[in-house]
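ping. complex inputs:
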Amino acid sequence: MKKVLALCLIILITITQTSCMKKKVTEGLAEIGLVVGIAIDKGNDPGTTMVTIQVLLPAKLRGQVGVTQGQGTPYWSTYAYGSTLMDAIRNISKATSRRLYWGHNQMIVINDEYAKEGVTGVIDFFSRNFELRPHTALVVTSNAASEVLTTQTGLEDVPADAINKLFSSSSFHFMPEKSTISTLLSDFLSEAKEPSLAGVRIVENTKLKEESIAKEGSNEKTSKKQTELDDIAAFKGDKMVGWLGDDESKGFALLTNKKQNGIIYLSDFKGTGKSISLELTTDELDINPYIQNSKIRFDIKLKVSGKIVEAGLTTIQPIEEFLPQMNKEVEAKVSYYIQSLLKKIQSDLKTDIVGFGEKFYSVYPSEWSIIGKDWSETFPEIPIKLNVKVTIKNSYLTTEFLNTKEERR
Amino acid sequence: MNTEKVQIPNGMFAILIIDSMWVIAIGMSQGTLTRAVGNNNWITSIFSFIIGIIIMWLTVKILIKTPGKNIIEQSELLIGKWPAKLISISAMAYFGTTFIALMITIVEHVVLYLLPEANIGVVIFFMTFVSIVAGYYGIEVLGRLAWIGFFCLWSFHLLLIVGTIQQFKADNFLPVMNRPVLDVLSASWYINPTWGLATMSAALILPLVKDSKKWKKSSLVGFFLGSVFVLIWPILQIGIITANVSSKYCVLCMELMRYAKLGDFFQRYEIVMSTLGLIVFSVQLFLCFLCFMHSTASIFGKKGYRSFLIPVSIIIGIISYWFCADHFRSMNFMEIIWPAIANPIILGIPLITLVLGWMFKRRIKNNSNISQRH
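pong. complex structure:
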């Protein structure tokens, strides 16, 4: 009896646990289309959506650098229109011979005109999809999203992969961390913070000769167009309300991304006409809310340390003599970035993308229950005091500036 | 418990208790809790486990008076055969509804995250079938499987913590206790039924545990460790997913597992964890099934339950299918029906038996005198 039961159990496990129903796994990659990127634009007709997807063709991917395995581009892109996102995706499947698999999707690009009409559907669709990773990058572009997704860059074979990898260097440029489905969903659901998304744009390298832009490891040429990180797209609720400028985006990154290695330069330092570049890292960031005489205010305390990475001036004077002035000038510049941001989000866009509301709610939950409902009206009027402290602590290998022969004499 | 009086070591019993607390408490119940109390779900969970450990202590205290008898047999001794049927019926109702809750849990995991095209009927048939096999082999074989489950638990949590800790934000817990204290504590209603399986199973299987002097220690240590394994989850869920996002999902544990990330090449990492979790889930399901069969048999006054295995499984399998076939019906069962049935039973049976034991002290004393003479 025991043997019969054991045999039945083995047979049952064998049949039910192989996941081979409908031959999906047995025929492997030839049966599924690995979606690596999706772009969302407004459709030609009002109220419609255009969805572009990028599907990986693994057989055409190059192996190691310089080794050509397949011919042609290793991805295939297509698009379709629909009344909703899901409708458009289903329409795409009319033209795809394989089942679309979203588990490897790396990038979602949304056109800013589409984003201005509301992205609830996008958030909802992607947060319901169990195959899609919550860490999938999500960006906004002022170009056509389909164009951004299909612009072939020089270093990477797959454009979606290229855009995703741009974020690996975002901290070098005072850019915020990668915006993802999970961060967008979290900000969207938060009552005390508005969403923001990183931007990307297409730039044209007009000064480069076309033949100089070869795809790495092959003789194929790519277009002169390249994708690069852009400024920040600010939202209010589910609608995009505007772009931050360059300085404002830097201010945003300083207040939200503690992992910074951004470069700041001091032009015409001390009237010498020479510039100094400094790499900044955030040591401490505190945003504290206070209530005084029934009025709310915030104090921002930012401690930044700097390293001299390039100095154009020559002098025999020791570096230490210049440090107070450098600290002062860097402080002014950092303060300017943050003040620009605060002015933009309080006066112009009137949206709390930094999360001042969350800080307030954390410290004053009972007061939040009263003012939280009107936070979007209250926030623009709140005074925010900024206290930036910069300390230049390092000059890398050298202890002094370079100096000329004349100066040495 | 069974016709043949097998005895299991105290350590094995403790491991069974650890495994029995886990599956529903980390996902479906936490989703309900975040909807009820937001980022205070971890406080509610701690409060609930404090109640649970008290109930576990009470259960041991009750059973230690008659070491050879489980709670149903002791109540027969105290109030007679027929009134004690009420205890059997209540126990059967708890284990039956918990079996359905476990089936809903596995079906929701499979259908929503792992194999969306899987046939619900096949999943339920398979899980009921393996439960019958487990029921046939009894508690000792289940105890061995529980050991494997215990090592799976460690591996699972190690993988989970490694994959998610970098995303952990302590700020997500603020403000703490932003809801009325009574609301936060009363929300334990939703999570109590999950530890109920540990206390109710203990009430039935403790007489099968070898060393009655160590019952208290093995029960409480098992319960405490089981609670720790569960409490990791609400803390990670709030710290990583946030309360707002957590409250939107039905199977919150799978959502947290989807957030786990180990490099770029380990895709759908949650499937590895699910595989490990399936062993623990099986232990929980089999234990529940075993106790369900035993309480059903005790209603009919039978010592052994094997003759009930097939017919009762068919009935409970069909009922499970009816609930699982409709997602909204199953969520209603998990959030409203199951807690409403389970809470009075898991809190009431030990308390009633304690009071009865106090009222009819002499019967217990006489019984122990008879046992000593024999």
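Residues 81-114 of chain B form the longest helix (34 residues).
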